[in-house]
Design goal:
There is one protein chain. The protein is built from 1 helix and 12 strands. The chain is mostly beta strands. A 4-stranded antiparallel beta sheet has the order 1-2-3-4, with no helix packed on it. It has a 4-stranded antiparallel beta sheet with strand order 5-6-7-8, with no helix packed on it. It has one helix spanning 152-166, and strands at residues 10-12, 18-23, 26-31, 37-40, 71-75, 81-86, 89-94, 101-102, 111-117, 123-129, 135-141, 148-149.
Length: 167
């Protein structure tokens, strides 16, 4: 079955020893035992027909918008909260029926995707991407605060979340 998913995509190696992830137009492999990341070389011959872009100017209303669906829902380990993405931002709410609260800062220009709780429920990892395709794996305290990038334990949080989704 073919799966189309928004970036970044990831998959487990068949033996469970690592994770494949798309990053910067390359395929990377994370070895879970060592934490080492390697690049898998590949080339592809691509032929495309390029035509003019269809464009129509429109005005964007800056008023609050109704949310019709959420994406990337992830329950906290104790089941008391839900993290999710709406309009490219990460939100958290108490269950059941709590008021959604924005987890991240308005000052970050990146789109945010795929929130995932740490096993202890204290942190949330998520991915970002901007209009150029650049992005990061981030982590932020589950109660909000300053997000940070590039730490090895972010990979452990993602590995835990992906493992729980496999079963």
């Amino acid at each position: 079955m073919k799966t189309i998913r928004p970036l970044p995509g990831y998959a487990w190696l068949p033996d469970g020893s690592g994770i494949l992830i798309s990053q910067g137009g390359k395929i990377r492999q994370l070895d879970l035992a060592t934490g080492e990341i390697s690049t898998i070389p590949f080339t592809a011959r691509v032929q495309r027909t390029i035509s003019g872009q269809a464009y129509q100017a429109f005005r964007i209303n800056d008023e609050p918008m109704p949310v019709t669906y959420t994406r990337w829902q992830s329950g906290s380990p104790d089941g008391s909260q839900l993290a999710f993405t709406v309009a490219g931002r990460v939100w958290v709410m108490e269950l059941p029926g709590g008021q959604p609260q924005r987890l991240t800062s308005d000052s970050d220009p990146h789109f945010e995707y795929a929130p995932s709780w740490s096993p202890d429920g204290l942190w949330i990892a998520y991915t970002t991407v901007d209009e150029t395709g650049a992005g990061h794996v981030m982590k932020i305290p589950a109660v909000g605060g300053k997000a940070s990038t590039g730490e090895r334990d972010v990979w452990r949080v993602l590995a835990h979340e992906m493992e729980s989704r496999r079963h």
